[in-house]
């Protein structure tokens, strides 16, 4: 079997060696089976890392279409090579497409072929900026002449769209595909790349994406059985099941790797295995060079550390090996995981341990790296994967005692004893390997893997919302207190426009763990349902939950988007009427006062705030008052940048009224210190003017609330650091440390 080039296989061979993906092929064929007068529906993108079977699938699909009595009359399939070497722009691609059409039509349409060749010959005479439109017109002409839709089976679209087609050319291509029925693309890519992920780029949300999953153990068993059809000894080997399990571990569900490893099953564990593996690794060298060749240097260093040491490593261990900052390593690990290079293998406490997706790279690295020639280590791991530590130990004991000496080769006996010695010296290493082997051979990853959350997230990124909901439903049975599952569930429901159901999920998430992001999503659902006042309350809770968001805004964009724009949809009179109504109000009086405050009805708020605070102690939930106070504080922050301080003058008495209502002197003092620190941070990022701050501090100082001199001294050190007073104050170590931390926090 041609592990690298499925194009060399016959249709029968392609079908014979194709496992685990027939459902996807049949779905695509069903989409292509158009009724009379019907136009093509959806362009497809197949996503999967190298070796996952994308080329095999597209090649098989090409032959399936040509062999199908209905589809061959509807479609003109064009199967491009895996790499389009001489294509540098959209015009080159269209010219190559037209030449492939000539080849595909062959002798079946001689008149069309002859005329098309003549038209292609005119391309070089055109100006560069005219060639693309001319190419598009020829595709439309072919469709009209043949009555067949042109189907482009194109691999590595991340190279074409991502590197060869300019943004303008991408716009041209998308415009043509949207306005013409002549052409349909079924493409492949190694990952969800920027050009289809970024909403600002032309091909965002254009393709229906389908991710090729790893082969299951049953799929691998079926494929291996087909590869062993002519090898009765291997099929009847007593170690066959153990070898199959080990192949599953080594291959990681990658079809290409299964094909490579099939020879291992045919061999006994003798010197021959070393020879087979050596040959195999020579064949794998270009494969690994392709996969890892474009990785940034630091990421490749991480990959190599994972290949050289224990099978599963934590970011902290990797950081120690590389003498690299742990936070930096964690960021790299996320990128490596998102791009399919590593996976989360297991969890110990709060630490995640990662393993290579390409487990064979460990063997390749250990046998090929000049400073790491450990040809026996991979065999030791292989044996431990094959039998497990306990069985190896038992075999080694029997060999040492002279049992079975005539049955097994000297090489095998020495290997088993060496493996047992290694296991005794490296218990943690072997425990890690056993856990990893169990994980890779388990058909129930979700129950053991914390990455089920990541899997759901990947499905959401692919907009597979129904599947994600099913996964969330299963995941919540395993982790009922993981609020993130409810968040993802709610998000999917929201994207499916089932907003009330989404809100119920967000409420469950909040019950487990109040979270600013969840309040934001909840508010978005309420806004869509035109429940604007409830949405504002959700957005306020967002700020209340994460106070740093108040200080992290750029030109108040977050406030403007989430609250201010929604406020414009409210009618102040409705809330004034409800506030004074004796019954029938939708909200509590503190909540109604919150709306009136945000609508800048300060007279009403000033008149009733003390009364509301007193009443609320017995008649309203404490969170309603807390939210009102958050709204006052938010309004102060948002008015600090303004030259006009009239609103600040109205808000500060409201703030101090609330402060005085707090029963504990310590609480009063902490609240005022918190407000002051927030104000200073805003000043340091140019979001508060000095006059507004002076007015605020003067009011607090004269309002009979706990206000220490240190607050004013800190302000002097920040606003006038070169002054004599500031330099004097900074001799106080405690005060100097506060000022230093304020600057460091920006």
TrEMBL record:
<dbReference type="InterPro" id="IPR036388">
    <property type="entry name" value="WH-like_DNA-bd_sf"/>
</dbReference>
<dbReference type="Pfam" id="PF12895">
    <property type="entry name" value="ANAPC3"/>
</dbReference>
<dbReference type="InterPro" id="IPR019734">
    <property type="entry name" value="TPR_rpt"/>
</dbReference>
<dbReference type="InterPro" id="IPR036390">
    <property type="entry name" value="WH_DNA-bd_sf"/>
</dbReference>
<feature type="domain" description="Helix-turn-helix type 11">
    <location>
        <begin position="301"/>
        <end position="352"/>
    </location>
</feature>
<dbReference type="Pfam" id="PF08279">
    <property type="entry name" value="HTH_11"/>
</dbReference>
<keyword id="KW-0677">Repeat</keyword>
<dbReference type="InterPro" id="IPR027417">
    <property type="entry name" value="P-loop_NTPase"/>
</dbReference>
<protein>
    <submittedName>
        <fullName>Helix-turn-helix, type 11 domain protein</fullName>
    </submittedName>
</protein>
<dbReference type="GO" id="GO:0003677">
    <property type="term" value="F:DNA binding"/>
</dbReference>
<keyword id="KW-0802">TPR repeat</keyword>
<dbReference type="GO" id="GO:0006355">
    <property type="term" value="P:regulation of DNA-templated transcription"/>
</dbReference>
<dbReference type="InterPro" id="IPR051685">
    <property type="entry name" value="Ycf3/AcsC/BcsC/TPR_MFPF"/>
</dbReference>
<dbReference type="InterPro" id="IPR011990">
    <property type="entry name" value="TPR-like_helical_dom_sf"/>
</dbReference>
<feature type="repeat" description="TPR">
    <location>
        <begin position="483"/>
        <end position="516"/>
    </location>
</feature>
<dbReference type="InterPro" id="IPR013196">
    <property type="entry name" value="HTH_11"/>
</dbReference>
